[in-house]
Amino acid sequence: MTDSGTVDIHISLYDYTNDIRVNLWLSCEGIFPTAKVYGFGDRPKSCHLYGFGDHPQGSLSGITSSCIMQGCEEILLLLGEHCASTLLQTDISIRKGVNLGYIVVSTCLDYLLREPFTYALYFVTAMGHVNFGVSAAFPASSPADALQAPAASVLVIGAGLAGLAAARQLLRFGLRVLVLEGRARPGGRVYTSRLGGGQAAVELGGSVITGIHANPLGVLARQLGIPLHKVRDRCPLYHTDGRTVGTRLDRSIDLVFNTLLDHATRLREALKEAAEGISLGEGIERLRRLYNVAKSEEEREVLDWHLANLEFSNAGCLSELSLAHWDQDDQFEMGGDHCFLAGGNSRLVHALCDGVPVLYEKTVKRIEHGVDGVSITVEGGQVFQADMALCTVPLGVLKSGSIVFDPELPENKLGAIQRLGFGLLNKVAMVFPSVFWDEEIDTFGCLNKESSKRGEFFLFYSYHTVSGGAVLVALVAGEAALEFEKVDPVVTLHRVLGILREAETNTETPEMIQSGHGNRSGR
Predict the structure, then answer these.
(1) Whole-prediction pTM
(2) The domain that contains 412 carries what CATH number?
(3) Phi, psi (5° rounding) for residue 232?
(4) pLDDT tens-place string over residues 297-307
(5) Is the Cβ–Cβ distance between 55 and 214 less than 8 Å?
(6) 109 lies in which domain range?
(7) 10 Å Cβ neighbour count for 217?
(8) 14-55 pLDDT, tens per residue?
(9) Cβ neighbours for 310, distance < 8 A, ≥ 6 positions apart
(10) Structural domain tally of the chain?
(11) Does some domain include residue 429?
(12) Which of 37, 263, 356, 357 is deepest in the core (most CB within 10 A)?
């Protein structure tokens, strides 16, 4: 214990499955609540942190011990009455490329006190830093009895990853939970379809885990023992006539692209408030002209490809992205490799669904809320009642106004819904009888002569390593993604096959077995 009365606690945890030791460092300023609950960003000076990293990036899962988990069904009550003021530093080997699976308490230092340890673990469990995912089972319940138990009840709206993960946590905390989903399936924008006679798993929704360090999806995959395939770095680019873009041209324009982004950051800093009214696309184009780069047709086509990739990364047109704010979430990006999930991302969805009561084809139309609880009306007039509701529907649904809130949401929330934009990406998935492209790559790109069409099938993902079939997915971003919505799928399919044949001129493109399109906008 320090002179200030703060108890510094070191908890040593061990992941027996992966032979990894993990350290948690806690600071408890008093055992019962009177002081501030510290966050990750404002630790007290009395708390000494040690570990691999400078700041926490990882989450643990599956921490079990009778002294920790006993009475977990009363966690919300305990947090209200006895939660210690705590600070947690999860300095784990996640920064070395590791996600933790199922771990157990191994050793605690002699000075570890039972009460602060117990309440600290309650606190970080409730905050979702530990004990999330599918490692700890809870009794399954059906939609019929989900709202009949004698505890507080919650209606979760939406059976996407967010809704399912929240429902599992709430069930684990001892609440009664029922999920209402408008579609006939779970997963939201994560949708793995079986094409090619059911042999190939094809992602028609979200497909790539973009960084596995501290990514809950990476933790889920580790818990389930699902192999992850690292997306290999090599991505050859092809001209419209099928020629491969030369290494010298490729590297030089890659340098130009990154330099333009660096200068865009400096421009934003120089302009200050004036940058608010300038788009990222306008800023980059001004800088390109100022520095007189990417002048030739070939150079401009390669630069356009990089700009299309930037539009893909941001799910929006550069003309709609703010120069002042477009990269404000960079500090929250997940580190580590980008990966494909063997067998499809729906494996995570189905695991999260296990034991969670879900009613499908229940499109919510009205939410009435007040001191006495909530009343939710779905399409067709059926009404569900509970103590509280958790709404996890997409931003697009909220912006459309298809759900009526009574009373209306607060002005600050309505303003946020109105101001926040959301982007659009599209894709065409194709299954072939065999792999006719380079099997040593996972991606390749295709240039376009027209800047306005630079995002049209600009990037192809090869899923032959994880899908169970010869699967290619062509991506559409930027302005091309908006135009894609207006074109007949048959026309787009002929277009993408034409581009593919041009790129693979050295190999005969076999007849496609089946195709599928990504979810179109609206929900």
Answers:
(1) 0.75
(2) 3.50.50.60
(3) -70, 150
(4) 999 999 999 99
(5) no
(6) 6-126
(7) 22
(8) 443 444 444 444 444 433 232 222 222 333 333 332 222 222
(9) 318
(10) 2
(11) no
(12) 356
